[in-house]
Design brief:
mainly beta; globular; 153 residues
């Protein structure tokens, strides 16, 4: 499950500022083994051009094969469910390293720092991949989520 909030951005001439998207992705084994399923939710505030742009981006369209994580993910999908257009709530506090994504009736996710099992204090755990594909540096955390709809988890 992932949620996205675009501060400033565009796809060609289509402005995407302030829009949101979310997705639920599932694979039975390792991603590269395929047979995945995808369900995309696009911000209901998006007009037709913005909806088409977000769906193109999130399905790896209009990019060289393997050039983006979305292209790679798309190549492993056995089933892509029809998208839905709904309000998406996203709250993020980068400094506190907490966040929440919610789509009424479809998904709920919250994240926080990994906690020390003895003291309960938050840990900062980073992965640094100088030649990384999906990211270069990422901070790890702890998340819980629930999804209903075509991919229930």
């Amino acid at each position: 499950m992932a949620g996205y909030q675009i501060k400033h951005g565009h796809f060609g001439d289509t402005q995407l500022d302030g829009l949101r998207a979310a997705c639920v992705l599932w694979w039975p084994r390792a991603i590269h083994e395929g047979n995945g399923k995808a369900f995309i939710i696009v911000d209901e505030r998006a007009d037709e051009a913005q909806r088409a742009a977000l769906l193109t981006i999130l399905s790896g369209g209009e990019t060289d094969p393997g050039a983006t994580m979305w292209s790679v993910y798309a190549s492993t999908m056995e089933k892509v469910f029809d998208p839905v257009f709904k309000p998406i709530e996203i709250e993020v506090d980068v400094e506190a390293r907490v966040g929440r994504v919610s789509v009424d009736g479809l998904l709920e996710c919250s994240g926080e720092p990994i906690r020390n099992p003895v003291t309960g204090a938050p840990h900062r755990a980073l992965i640094d991949l100088p030649d990384g594909f999906e990211y270069r540096v990422v901070e790890m955390g702890s998340a819980t989520f629930k999804a209903s709809g075509p991919i229930a988890m």
